[in-house]
C-alpha cells in the first residue's frame, strides 16, 4: 500500500471545475472534440517538482498522495491549464497608439503607412533603443501575460529588420526565456521591407534567404520562421524563397496568411505543410480544406479587426472544415492586449466560437501550434505543472465575464509565480509591482 502512494509538493483540492483537456497530447482537437473540456467536478491535482503526478476528484487524489504537501484550496474556483499564446510580436521599443484616430476614421494599414511611416516608426525606434530598454519592455509584456494566466508565448522578432538587429531581438527572447517564468519560443519574423531596401525587394528577399536564415539557424536562435505573406509585405514568391531556405537550414515554418487580403499565404501554408497558418481571414474555403487535411493549426487572432478595423476569420466555417484552431493575442506595436481571456471573449461573442472551443483553442491546441502538446496544454499525469486557478465557478465565465482578470494563482513548472493576483517577486526579473 505504501509503495503505491505518490509523493507531492503541492496538491490543489476542491476545484469547483477542473478542466483537464485530457487525451490530446499527441494531436490537436478538431470539430466535436473541441466541445469537450474533460471536466472533473470537485477536482484535484497533485504536483511534484515540475510535473503533475495525480489528477482526479479530490477524494481520489487525496487517497493516493503521501502526507507532507502544501494544500491549495480551490473551493468555488476553476482550475485549468495555463494559457498558451502562439502569436506575439514581442520585442519593440515604440507603440503606435497615435494611429488610433486615423484607424477609427477609416484609413487602411497601407494608407496609414504611407502617411505616417506606420511600422517603420517602430522599426526606427527599436533600432536605436538600447538592449537594456528592449529587455525591460519585453519583460513587461511577459509580466502582464503571466498575470493574466499565460505560461508560454511564441515570440516573434521583426522590428529591426537588419541581420544584427534581428539577432539581438532573438537573443533578448532567449535570455528572457531563461530568466522569466513565461517560456518564450523564438520565431524569426521578416515582417517588413525597411526603407533602405525600398524598390529593391528582390534583393532584400535574396539576402534574407541566402544570409539571414542560415546565420540565425547556425546560431540556433529561432525554432520558427514566420513571414508576412500579404499586400505591402512579402508576396507569395518572396515568401516561398525565404521558406525554401528555412527548409534547407532547419527552421520550421509559420505564416501570416491572408490577413489584409487573399495574398496566397494560405496556399503557401498548404503547399509547404507548415506548422501553423495564422490569421486566415481572406483564405478561400478550398484552401482551408487543404489546411484541414494536413492538420495544420489555424491560429485565429480575435483582436486583428481592432487594428485597421478589418474583419474576423470565419471561425465557424474553419472549424467545420476540420482545421484544429488555436487562439493568440497578436500583441504588436499597434495591438496591445496580453490577455488571453479577452481573446476568448471576442472569439465567442464576435466569431461565434463556443465557450468550450475557446478554452481548447487557448490551451491544448495552442500548445500544438508551437509543437508543445506532449509537454503542455492539459492537466494530465506526466505533463509539466503549468496550472492556473481562477476566481470563477465555471468555464462559461470566460468568455462571459470579460474585461477583468480572473486569474488568481499561476503555477509554472511546479512553482507558484502568481499569488493573490500578484507576481511573486523572487521569480520575476526586472520586477515591477503592477
Ligand atoms: Zn501577427
Describe this structure in words.
The strands form 2 sheets. Strands 1, 2, 3, 4, 5, 14, 15, 16 and 17 form a 9-stranded mixed beta sheet that branches. The protein has an 8-stranded parallel beta sheet with strand order 6-7-8-9-10-11-12-13. The protein is of the alpha/beta class and 434 residues long. α12 packs antiparallel against α13 (355-362). It has 2 domains: 2-81 and 377-423, Roll (Urease, subunit C, domain 1); 83-369, TIM Barrel, CATH 3.20.20.140. It has 15 helices and 17 strands. The model has no long low-confidence stretch (mean pLDDT 96). 34% of the residues lie in helices and 22% in strands. Zinc ion (ZN) binds at residues 87, 89, 256, 330.
Map the helices and strands:
Blueprint: E1 10-19, E2 39-48, E3 51-57, H1 58-64, E4 70-73, E5 78-81, E6 83-89, H2 100-104, H3 109-116, H4 119-128, H5 131-147, E7 150-156, H6 163-179, E8 183-188, H7 201-218, E9 224-229, H8 236-249, E10 252-257, H9 265-272, E11 276-279, H10 285-293, E12 297-300, H11 315-320, E13 325-327, H12 340-349, H13 355-362, H14 364-369, E14 387-390, H15 397-400, E15 407-412, E16 415-419, E17 422-423
Parallel strand pairs: 1-4, 1-5, 6-7, 7-8, 8-9, 9-10, 10-11, 11-12, 12-13
Antiparallel strand pairs: 1-2, 2-3, 5-14, 14-15, 15-16, 16-17
Helix pairs in contact: 5-6, 7-8, 9-10, 12-13
The structure holds zinc ion.
Amino acid at each position: 500500500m505504501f509503495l503505491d502512494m505518490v509523493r507531492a509538493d503541492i496538491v490543489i483540492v476542491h476545484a469547483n471545475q477542473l478542466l483537464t483537456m485530457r487525451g490530446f497530447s499527441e494531436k490537436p482537437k478538431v470539430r466535436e472534440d473541441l466541445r469537450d473540456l474533460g471536466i472533473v467536478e470537485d477536482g484535484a491535482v497533485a504536483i511534484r517538482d515540475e510535473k503533475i503526478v495525480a489528477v482526479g476528484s479530490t477524494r481520489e487524489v487525496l487517497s493516493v498522495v503521501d502526507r507532507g504537501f502544501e494544500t491549495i484550496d480551490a473551493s468555488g474556483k476553476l482550475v485549468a491549464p495555463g494559457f498558451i499564446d502562439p502569436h506575439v510580436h514581442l520585442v519593440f521599443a515604440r507603440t503606435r497608439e497615435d494611429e488610433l484616430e486615423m484607424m477609427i476614421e477609416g484609413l487602411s494599414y497601407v494608407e496609414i503607412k504611407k502617411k505616417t511611416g506606420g511600422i517603420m516608426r517602430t522599426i526606427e525606434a527599436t533600432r536605436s533603443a538600447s538592449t537594456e530598454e528592449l529587455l525591460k519592455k519585453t519583460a513587461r509584456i511577459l509580466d502582464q501575460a503571466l498575470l493574466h494566466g499565460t505560461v508560454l508565448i511564441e515570440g516573434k522578432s521583426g522590428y529591426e529588420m537588419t541581420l544584427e538587429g534581428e539577432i539581438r531581438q532573438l537573443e533578448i527572447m532567449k535570455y528572457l526565456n531563461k530568466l522569466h517564468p513565461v517560456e518564450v519560443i523564438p520565431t524569426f519574423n521578416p515582417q517588413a521591407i525597411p526603407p533602405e531596401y525600398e524598390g529593391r525587394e528582390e534583393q532584400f528577399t535574396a539576402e534574407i534567404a541566402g544570409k539571414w536564415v542560415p546565420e540565425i539557424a547556425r546560431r540556433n536562435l529561432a525554432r520558427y520562421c514566420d513571414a508576412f505573406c500579404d499586400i505591402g509585405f512579402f508576396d507569395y514568391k518572396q515568401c516561398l524563397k525565404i521558406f525554401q531556405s528555412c527548409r534547407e537550414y532547419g527552421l520550421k515554418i509559420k505564416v501570416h496568411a491572408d490577413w489584409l487580403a487573399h495574398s496566397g499565404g494560405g496556399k503557401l501554408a498548404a503547399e509547404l505543410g507548415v506548422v501553423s497558418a495564422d490569421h486566415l481571414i481572406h483564405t478561400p474555403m478550398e484552401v482551408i480544406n487543404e489546411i484541414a487535411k494536413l492538420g495544420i493549426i489555424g491560429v485565429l487572432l480575435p483582436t486583428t479587426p481592432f487594428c485597421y478595423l478589418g474583419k474576423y476569420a470565419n471561425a465557424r466555417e474553419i472549424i467545420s472544415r476540420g482545421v484544429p484552431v488555436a487562439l493568440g493575442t497578436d500583441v504588436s506595436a499597434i495591438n496591445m492586449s496580453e490577455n488571453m481571456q479577452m481573446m476568448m471573449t471576442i472569439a465567442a461573442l464576435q466569431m461565434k466560437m463556443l465557450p468550450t472551443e475557446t478554452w481548447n483553442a487557448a490551451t491544448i491546441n495552442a500548445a500544438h501550434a508551437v509543437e508543445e502538446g506532449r509537454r503542455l496544454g492539459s492537466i494530465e499525469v506526466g505533463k509539466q505543472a503549468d496550472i492556473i486557478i481562477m476566481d470563477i465557478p465555471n468555464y462559461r465565465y470566460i468568455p462571459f465575464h470579460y474585461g477583468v482578470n480572473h486569474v488568481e494563482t499561476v503555477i509554472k513548472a511546479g512553482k507558484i509565480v502568481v499569488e493573490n493576483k500578484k507576481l511573486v517577486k523572487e521569480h520575476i526579473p526586472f520586477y515591477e509591482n503592477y
